[in-house]
Every structure is written in C-alpha cells, then in structure tokens.
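Troubleshooting log. The previous structure file for this entry was overwritten by mistake, so regenerating from the original sequence record. Sequence copied from the archived sheet and checked twice against the printout by T.R.
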Amino acid sequence: MKRPSWQALSGYVAAAGFLALAVGWIASGPVGGDAVPEVQKPAAQLTETGKARPAVRVRTQDADWHRRTLTAQGRTAADRRIVVRAEASGNLINLPVDKGARVAEGDRIARIDAQDKPARLKEAEALLAQRRTERDGAEKLAEKGFRGEQQLAQARALFEQAQAQVKQAQVALAQTRVRAAFDGIVAARPVDVGDYVAPGDKIAELIDLDPLVIVASVTERNVDRIELGQPVSATTLDGRTLKGTVTYIASEADETTRTFTIEAEVPNPDATLRAGMTVDMTIPVQAERAHFIAPSILTLADDGTVGVKILDESDTVRFEPVTIQADTPEGVWVTGLPKRVTLITVGQNFVETGQKVRARTEAEIARSLPETSVSLPADMPGDPGPEAQP
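Regenerated output below.
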C-alpha cells in the first residue's frame, strides 16, 4: 500500500485545527459568560413635582341656610259658596241683580210678592196695642186691690201672645225680600221675574272670592312636612304670582288618590282672581344647610353618581357625591358637602381623584389680570391649566 504524503497529512491537520477552534468559540458562551440574557431595565418612576402639577381654579365657600320646597298642582276656589233659596211662596216681582254682579252683605237679591202679609202685620200690631192697654190697666187695678192675681196673669199672657203674632207677621213679610248673606258675587240666577217659587226653590248662587282659596293635594310622604300658617306661593298659567298661608290640612287621605288635601288662603279684595284657575303651588317645608353652586361644576362618578370635585388640605382632588335640592336659573342648591369646602370650579374634568394639583383661587386670578380690557367668561382660568395643556 502506498502511504499518504506529508502534504496531505498537513492539510488534514489544518482542517482539524480550524474545527477545534470553531467548537471552542461556540462553547465559549455557556462556559465563559452568563447564559441568562440581560433583563430590560424598569421604566423610570416619574414623581410629580410642583411645576408638573396641573393648575385648577378653586373657590372656598361656606354652606348657607336653604329652605326646601314642595310643589303641587292645584286650583283656585271660592272661600264660601251658598245657594240662596226661597223661604216664602209667591211670584217673583223684582230681581235687582244679574248673574255676575257683586253684592254687599244685606243687599236685596230678589223680592217675592208679599200678598196679604203686610195687612196681617198691621192686624197683629193693632192687636198688640190693645193687649198692651189691657195689661197696663190690669196692673193698676191689681195695685189698688180691684183685680186678683189670676186676672193680671191672664192679661199679661194675652199681651205676650200678641207680641209673638207681630213677630211672626214681621218674619213672614221679611221672607219675601231675599238678601245677600255676605259680600260676594252672584254666580248663578236660574229664575226670572214672574216665576213662581216655593220654600226651598233655588233663587241664586252666591260665592265669596275674598280670600281666594287654593286647593292642592300632597302625598302621605310630604303631608307631615306642612304646617298650618305656613307661607306658600302659587303661579297661575298667565304668570301671576299669588302669596298666601296654609289654612287647612286634611286628616284623612282621599280613598281614590291616597293623597291629602291642603288649602291656602290668598287675599283677593278686588276679586280680580277667579275661582277654578289652575296654579302651581310652592310650599317651603324645611330649612337646611346647603351649598349654592353653578351647574357646570357638577360631575359624574364612574357609577353615575352626581357630585363635585373638591380639594383637601394637601391639595389632593376628592370626589364628593351631592344631592340636588333645588334647581334655579341662577344655580343649584346641593347637600352632602362639608360646611366649609374648597370647590374646583374650573379644570375639574381634567383631573382625577387622588391627584395632587396646583390650586389657584378666583381672587388670585382676578389680581393677576388687573389690566385686562376684555371681560373674560366666568369659567376662564387665569393661569394655563389642564385646558391649555396638550
């Protein structure tokens, strides 16, 4: 066999050396260094600095007394209403007032034919004069002893009987003249001159509109909040405002509506207010401490709760739920806040609960703009705050 030459052997040796070097280089990673890859460094924790805090406008205010109100729809009604009925029989010979006329107490509304009643009165008066003379004579004779006590008692009895007959005749004649029982308005007059009436027949209906009564209904939840003598106000459909006081609170609920009737009296001396008008009654029922705020500072929590954002002593934002007690064109009254509170009035929608902020009061902002010629809106911040930040 022929042996390999030295040149061939040297090629094999060089190839083996290169192979050994490659294997050593590959193995040098796990052998000479750390096999675990380097972990990425954590993100830098940026802490808020005073300059990094967002700016908000704030106002510190104290709660004020606010009287809660109840509202109820009601109607106006007459204070008194009576049906004037005939007390005598006969034809109507005079009706001096028409329907809708205003009358004073004692004014004549109708006159019924008196027939023979004046003559009966004169007859009764003549008999009374006779009985008076007989009584006086009997008393004088009794003083002298010419009449006994029995004759004197009989004369006195006849005199008293004649007095009663005169009174009866006077009443019968007076009943033919129908008069107003109080100052009021003739609301109805279903009869006319010449009609025959008997005792009990309706001649007119009389209503008293001073004071005017407002009648409304309230629920059983609210009725105990109302007191007699409490002031109320009411607004008519044409915008007139009425002022009055509560005069009646029902002790029993209506069986159908389960509500309680209340009444309030309103002065109406000139009778310009009419019965039967629809009104919205407002009843102040309870005074409590509340804050008056602009509706624009109200915010909603994630669960839909209505509230406001305030600042605590460390200028940290807090959310406080509130209850709206009254809504007016100028603002809203809310309860649920501390007696003194620092409200975020501008920028509340750009900060979160628990976040520290840089507070600027409304007074500071006013001082910082002494030479501003343009009137800024009420909600314009005086310092670039969250609204101006990208």
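Confidence is low (pLDDT under 50) at residues 30-39, 43-50, 373-390. Archived copy saved in two places this time.
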